[in-house]
Design a protein that fits this description.
With 323 residues, the chain is an alpha/beta fold. The protein contains 10 helices and 13 strands. α4 runs parallel beside α5, α6 packs across α8 and α8 packs across α10.
Length: 323
């Protein structure tokens, strides 16, 4: 089967479908979306059951389960602080995970595979909004370049499989994601869960001031994981092409606006200050989502509604969330 001749079709609901990273933020949302869509052959393994860094174990798993479809959502992820502090871990572990899963999927003839990347693959100073074609046209954001390089390697790996073996594998590049099951740790979280944790804690302890990193001026696009999961299934059933596909809303807000939304959702009435000695990261990351839009997909959840729902989930699961 040559990739150029593949005509995307609805996936068969009773086929074996492996979701790598099915307990994470994105993977768990994809699992829920697939269940809702009627998939009965879902397969998942926790990191304790299957360490994707162990190549022989990954190949044995594929030999045993022989999935027809795969979504590769497993990754070592984190915010600016974690990426900047542990670049070796983010580069090495993600390369191991990706290479093992993609090689095993190829050996065992996985028909349709979707690799999930990250918008940090694009140059720091890329023109806005960021088109898929801007990949590898400039320098990366230095605070998370190691993670970005690993994800770029995954995209090129998928493209290489298409060229060499003709399999219709694809890659999706989500914008900043949020929602239930996120990482709310002080060191490992991304901007939105970090803000939720900080403002929730300030409200509960009566802190009069919340201090956030940076200037509050960088702009970020955010997409709820439920919308991301819906987009992944849509792409698997409606899109085929060598380029990665941007997945987002096409709209962004400043970090300061985001902080205000979180404070409002939490009910925090104190003061917000900004520690300008801390890094801002990329000044703006807004994805051009015209490829996705042209395939017939649109997000459903409004940002403020999504934040309120995520805050409610965090407050209900505060003691058991990833910290």
């Amino acid at each position: 089967m040559m990739a150029g001749n593949y005509d995307p079709q609805p996936l068969e609901r009773d086929s074996t479908f492996y979701v790598a990273g099915h307990r994470g933020l994105v993977g768990s949302a994809i699992w829920r979306a697939l269940r809702k869509a009627g998939f009965s052959g879902l397969v998942g393994r926790t990191s304790k059951e299957l360490d994707l860094r162990r190549r022989d174990d990954v190949f044995a798993f594929f030999a045993d389960t022989r999935p027809r479809y795969v979504v590769l959502a497993a990754a070592k992820v984190g915010g600016i602080m974690a990426n900047n502090t542990y670049p070796v871990d983010f580069l090495s572990e993600n390369l191991q995970i990706q290479t093992n899963v993609l090689d095993a999927a190829l050996q065992h003839g996985v028909e349709r595979l979707l690799f999930l990347g990250s918008s940090c693959i694009y140059p720091k100073m890329a023109p806005q909004p960021i088109k898929e074609e801007y990949l590898l046209t400039g320098h990366l954001e230095p605070t998370n370049d190691a993670y970005a390089i690993a994800k770029i390697a995954g995209i090129l790996h998928v493209q290489a499989v298409r060229r060499q073996y003709g399999l219709p594998w694809i890659s999706a590049m989500p914008t900043n994601l949020y929602g239930a099951e996120d990482n709310f740790s002080a060191e490992g979280s991304h901007v939105l869960p970090a803000l939720i944790r900080r403002y929730d804690e300030a409200k509960r302890t009566g802190e009069p001031i919340v201090t956030n990193w940076g200037t509050g001026t960088p702009r970020r696009e955010l997409l709820h994981v439920a919308d991301m999961a819906d987009a992944c299934l849509h792409l698997l059933e409606h899109f085929d092409g060598p380029s990665q596909v941007n997945v987002g809303t096409g709209k962004d807000v400043t970090i300061a606006q985001l902080a205000a939304m979180v404070a409002s959702a939490v009910g925090y009435e104190g003061e917000t200050r900004w520690d300008t000695s801390k890094p801002d990261g990329t000044p703006r990351k807004l994805l051009d989502v015209s490829t996705l839009t042209a395939s017939g997909w649109r997000p459903r959840l409004d940002l403020e509604d999504g934040i309120r729902g995520t805050v409610a989930w965090y407050q209900s699961n505060r003691e058991s969330v990833r910290k």
